[in-house]
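OP here, attaching both records as promised.
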Amino acid sequence: MRTMRTTKTRFLVSSSLFALIAIVLPAVLCGPATATTNFFDGIYMGGDHPHLRGARAYVYRYLPAYRAGFTCAWSMMDEFDSDFAFAQVGWMRWTYWGRTTRYFWEYEDLDGSPVGGIQMLGVVPNPGNYGTRDKFTVHKIASGNIVYYINGDSVSSTTNPDWVSDEGRFFGETLYSSNQLPGDKYHHVKFESIQVFSNEGDQWIDVNPENNNWKRTHPNSGSSRDSSHFEIWDTQCDQEGNP
């Protein structure tokens, strides 16, 4: 297994947003806080896939309770050896928005330059309805543009990326260790029908979670996987966001 670059941050929030988070979030949610930011649970491929041009998965829509803080789940393709260089699409919940959960996409160049920062889309319908799911796809098409899809519908695109994707990533993520990971003790968030697109053969290829790398940095992360899907959840939270 290749060692993951620890400096690589996949989901970035501007300094002004950090200030807002500090004001809005309660001091403690379902676990202890730390000074470190960005915590993950999920699988990544680790580079060495120079023909990879897309990533997609079905992700369960069930979201944590109101006390979740800042949490999200997404599909991504990126350039493994860069500290930046990624394109992702998924859902996000943030206490700053109250009880609202939104779809989003985000892109960064090799130098970390974002295209407008986090791009917020529509409100996720019935986010507390356990068992519903969304299909999140990011795909570099023949023109060279990267297109973002939610449930088969194109929601946006970015042009002329200055990096070459060589891996897919499928993660749940929080900003702080005290934020609730996607899912809880009784409602696991599943990632299933996970695939990457290869321009060798011009086809989508199934991803076996058991054959890929696992990144698990949140102190409360619970997870399981088999050959067809994986599940993540916060071991310290119930459906009401309580420890």
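Record two, same layout:
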Amino acid sequence: MNAPLLILFTENGTHAVLSFPDQRARSAHLKTEEAQARARGLKLTGYAAKRSSRKADFYVTHPAAAPAVMPTPKEVRAILKQYKEANR
């Protein structure tokens, strides 16, 4: 079984959708992302996407002193739809 999709939102508002062959590769990538964020003085906060046909988690990079701005469900659905259409 494939690992869940990973949607990364950066502090400047861009996002990336990543797919991994297994959970180990996904975990390694998350550790790398977290280390890079910490090196820039940022924090990586994760959430589980709700009500999605495909299991997906998203992480938001944000300033450590400020709260994370969680994407809306509408934004997450639009990103997943775009990903699904691109991979047909």
